[in-house]
Write a structure and sequence with these properties.
Length: about 270
């Protein structure tokens, strides 16, 4: 999809939210604006999507269904900070990484696991000495991380992804927080697609019986968990899943996370 058209759609929400540019990135000689949509509220949910360009469902769900998301949040007094498409050149090209080949996503933080030994991801449970924000990484991650750091941690955070490796119409999620809170969302999503339960999804992770994984991967959800955000999730639908079903699953989790944010608590 042409990002110019996408940006025009995002700017059209000016009557529903504050539409701000938190930065711009240049790829292949073209400049791309980076958007934050803000709706005020008593408690806060941060929604991010589009870290990977070949995972278009999240950015498209937000572009097509933002008015109903805003209405649902306002009814519950929940404020939104929405970053609808973090990697615009990848989104436009349909490529996982940006046009320069940089890899936005797992580079918000680093773990010191032994004196002077640093890791971006913890592939097994292990003690850590400390974690720190990572100052390097792709321009897209640096831009969104800098903007997010301007605000207090939210009451909940949802990062919308897709899985481009598993086949079939399916969903699962990387989660931090009380898993009981997520089970109603999993059950609702199961009415639309298969939940990937007790199955290996990559070289490091196997879902549990609810289709959930806990994994310290240096991502935005990991970073928010380390800041004490009680509900933080990266949602996955498979890329073969029809877009309408992806929208349905994404909206289930978005509404669910608005409800979780409405609970309050840190």
């Amino acid at each position: 999809m042409n990002y110019t058209d996408y940006a025009q759609r995002i700017r059209s929400f000016v009557t529903l939210a504050e539409v701000a540019e938190y930065g711009r990135v240049t790829e292949g000689g073209l400049e791309y604006p980076l958007f934050r949509l803000t709706v005020p509220g008593e408690r806060w949910l941060v929604i991010t999507s589009g870290f990977h360009g070949e995972e278009p469902a999240g950015p498209l769900t937000l572009a097509e269904h933002f008015p109903e998301v805003v209405a649902y949040a306002r009814e519950r007094g929940v404020g939104l900070r929405v970053y609808p498409c973090i990697n615009p050149s990848g989104f436009e090209d349909g490529t996982r990484y940006n046009r320069s080949g940089e890899k936005p996503n797992n580079d918000f933080m680093r773990y010191e696991v032994a004196p002077g030994e640093w890791k971006g991801e913890l592939n097994r449970p292990q003690p850590i000495l400390r974690w720190v924000l990572f100052d390097g990484g792709p321009k897209e991650t640096r831009a969104v991380r800098s903007d997010l750091a301007r605000f207090p941690p939210p009451n909940a955070a949802l990062d919308i992804h897709q899985d481009n490796y598993l086949g079939g119409e399916a969903t699962y999620a990387y989660t931090f927080g009380d898993k009981k809170a997520y089970r109603p969302l999993v059950d609702a999503a199961a009415r639309h697609v298969t939940v990937v339960r007790n199955q290996k999804v990559d070289e490091n992770n196997v879902t549990d019986a609810d289709g959930l994984i806990e994994y310290h991967d240096g991502s935005i959800t990991d970073w928010y968990m380390r800041q004490g955000v009680p509900f933080a999730t990266a949602l996955e639908t498979t890329t073969p899943t029809p877009l309408a079903k992806c929208h349905a699953v994404n909206l289930i989790w978005i509404r669910g996370f608005i409800d979780l944010a409405a609970r309050g608590g840190r």
